[in-house]
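Q: Give me a protein?
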Amino acid sequence: KMTQQMRDLQLAQARKPPGPSSPNAAKRLYRNLSGKFRVNYTSFDEGSLAGRGEKEKLRKSYLFQSNAALFEAVELQDLDRVQELLKQYSPEELDLNTPNSEGLLPLDIAIMTNNAPIAKALLQAGAKESPHFVSLESRSLHLSTLVREAEQRVNELTAQVVNEAPNTDCSEKEKQLRAWEWRYRLYKRMKAGFEHARVPDAPTNVHLSVASSTSVQVTFWEPLNVNSAVVTKYKVEWSCSPTFSPLLGEAVIDKLKNLHFTIRGLVSGTAYYVRVSAYNMKGWGPPQASMPPSAIPSNWREYDGRAPRRRGQAEALDHLLGQVKTVHQHCVCHEPCKNQPQSRKHSVSKSLKHLFHPGSKFLKTLKRGLYLTAIFYKDDNILVTHEDQIPVVEIDDTYSCLLMQDFLWFTKVSCMWDEILWLRQCVTVSQSSCSCILQTRFKMLLAISQMQGLLGIQDLGQVFFEPVKDKQGNILIITLKEVKTNQTFESVRWVPICKLQTSRKSVSSPEEPTALDTLLISLQDKLTYHQHSSHALSPGLYLGYLKLCSAVDQIRVLVPEQLPNILCHVKIRSNPNISREEWEWLQKMASMEEPVPAEPEAETSQNHLFQELQVAIKELMTLVNIPLQEAKDFRLYSQEVLDFGGQVSFLLLLPPSDDVCTAPGQNNPYTPRSGFLTLPLQIFELGEER
């Protein structure tokens, strides 16, 4: 019956051209792809093709060659070529899961010849086993049939070669004989591989953790035994009973890039037991229960019923801003706009640049004063004016106020680039008070509008965390923005950064560089900072270190240069959730007068967290250059877990209360190694929000 099924399959695929007749022909076929066939078929001159039908015919022929090359590469156990084909073509282009004329898939050949590296490469690409092998008996019968038919063909060709006189036909028969002898040996090796294989051992390191109030996550590794056949899928089962009777659910995992699975839709407060088993061509192996044996879906907030700190805050702020705008619509600063004729309204909406005098332009040199510069970059290029200068506009040439307070106000304004015109109109009302602070901030808004108009864009990017100053009294406030699309700007052009730095002629001495020269010298550092500050952490639970230092006019926070929008940190684990049981244990530890952490009972989530924290604390202390014995006086912040978007959460490690914030002149014996910087606290908060 099985033989008849295979013959039917062969008839169904009769349209598919046969494969190469010999191993050498196979090698020539897929190696020639690197030359003759490894081109984009759409690059042919359309004039040389008869039409769409001819192009489609060429395309199908081209894709067939890649499919045949993959089969031959797997049969010849050429791992490099298999990886090259998988990288070069999509699974659809390779017909990765379409059986050949023998009813086999590339993955079948790889696992039955026990070639684990090729099998794993195919599995990563989405390869499947043949659906025709519904049982062990059907696979065994099919292999026996292939071996028998190949042996019969070898015998027939051998007799023909022996009995016929030497001629051209005989030479061709000898080639066919060698090809079938090679295929006969391949099928025998596949049959032997199948017969000697056994079911896989149980997966290892099966770990169960609480993912949320309604889900748990199980992670696991491959079976340790390497003598078994390649594992092609895993099965996760769960139940409320340790005997797994009744079974509540199961899931088969056949995408093996990441060996983990999240079981969702569970009942909070209910214990769930989980086990995992592996599968190969001989069937399912024994299941492995998780460690700990069970988990209860929960979240740390359930400990005291606490609501998320930021719940509804964004909506409330948007509502408050809307109310403020509604009130200001009736203020005197808006009355002139209401009485303007239609043509005036049209000119205002046409472009921001029409708000300025036609003579408005970028500055070439700096005098004593406060300035705004906008740095737009793309890859290794930067936007400059037609005079090859970084765009600079003047804020105030008589600036004499407190810079830090105005600068921090400016950073907050950078969150509202689209609202600058409205802010200007609102500040204008109060300008009659002649306040130095209000006048400076109004001039800041004017400078922002001028920069937006000259560039023809509203979003000026992120403010660099500190202004650039020089001894001549110039102060530069810097904004940075990375351009990732082919965006057009007005009054500026792109030039390579290296060309700008080498071609600019300095007008100052090396001992006393101007603010612009200092900016150009440190430009790459500022671009690197901006790129790093936009990076995000991968999902997980982290241990952060909070260290502050105070100055006369600000408080600064210690951050890593590689990720300046996040506190110094190390990763505890990939699961960001802290369960109720884990948080309860942490609270118990925090309430002890002399916290000597006794190790929790084995095989519990608390014990696993305890071990993870021990490793993380050692790693973090090494990172910030603090001797481990000093950490005995440190403590975990036990008021809350810091959540960032549901995928990233933080536990905070705090120094003793007297050392959390270092005062000016206070001795700090443990300074971090290179790779750290201190940011103004308000700048750090803005970067964290972004």
